Amino acid sequence: MYTQEYNLTDKLTFNVPAKSSFYTSVFTDEELRDALNWARENSHAILLLGGGSNMLFHDDFHGLVIQIGHKGVKVLEDDGRRVEVEVGAGEVWHDFVIQTIEKGWGGIENLSLIPGHVGASPMQNIGAYGVELVDVLKHVEAVNLASGELRRFTAEECELGYRASIFKGREKGNWAIVRVAFTLDRNSELKMSYGAIETELQHIPLEDRTHKDVSDAVIKIRQSKLPDPTVLGNAGSFFKNPIITKAEFEEITRNHPGLPNYPAKNSRVKIAAGWLIDKAGWKGHDRGTHGVHDKQALVLVNKGGATGKEVWALAQDIIESVKQKYNITLEPEVNQIRTDRGNPDY
Length: 346
What we know:
Uridine Diphospho-n-acetylenolpyruvylglucosamine Reductase, domain 1, Uridine Diphospho-n-acetylenolpyruvylglucosamine Reductase, domain 3
C-alpha cells in the first residue's frame, strides 16, 4: 500500500513539517523488494526511514519514503557466556538494550536511551560513554536498492569509524539495512570511567555493580541534560565532536584552556563540540520557535513551529561562529534531507 502526500512530521523526532509524495512501510525483505521495484517502475526517488531520529528535513521529499519495519530478536549462538543475537532493523534501539540487560547480556548498556531504530546503529556507529557499536558488531544484512540482492557485511566490511561506516561512505545510498547481529557477553567488563557514570554509581560497592546499574546511570545522566523528543523536538547531538591533531589541540588550548578532550586513533585528539559551542555563547540561544538547548549546547531544539530550513540556518550560524573563534569547522551528525539530494541516510 502506497499512501500519497503523506505527512511525515509525527515520524520525525525534530517534529518539523515535511511530506513525501508517497509512503509505505515494509516488514520483510520481499516487501522491501516490491517497494523498490514499484518506485523504479514509476520513476520515484527513494528515501529510507527508520526511527526518524537522526534527520532534519529542509522541505518535502518528492518520491517514495520506505520505512523499514523489520522486527525480531533471534539468538544465533550461545555458549553460556557469549551470545550472538540478530535483530530486525525496525526494532527500537533502547527497547533492545533493555531486553539485553534483562537477559543478562552485557556490552551495550552504555548505549541506553539512544533514540532511533536498530537499523541505524551500524550506519552511524552509534556511541556514548566510552562504548561504540564497533565494540559489539558481528554482521549486518542489507538489501541492495538496485538489484534486490541480500548481502551480509562482516563487522570489518562495515568500515566503522567515528559516526561513520561504509553505508555513509562509498556505499552510501546503495543498501537498506534489514538486520544487525551483535556479540554480547554475560561477563563483559563494566565501562564506568566516562562522563558522570562513576559519580552516579559511587554509592554502590564496585564488586556489586551490574550491567543494569550502568544502564540506569546512563539513563539518569541522559535524562538530566537531554530533552525528550516527545516533548521538545530534537535529534540529540546535532554536531560531531571534532577530531584534530595534537598540534592543533595544543594551539587551541594555549588560548582556551580547559577544553575537554579524549584520545583518538592515530595519535589524534577528540574534543568536545558542546564545550566549543557553549564557550562561543550559544548555549540556551533562543530564536522563538527554535534554539539551542539550555542544558546541552550540542542539541538544537524545535520549540514548536520551526521549519527544517530555520533549524539549519541556526546550525550554520553556530558553525561559522565556532570557526571564527577556534578555527575549527564543526560537522553535523544529523543527516540533512533536501530535495536536491539523492538517497539520504536514515
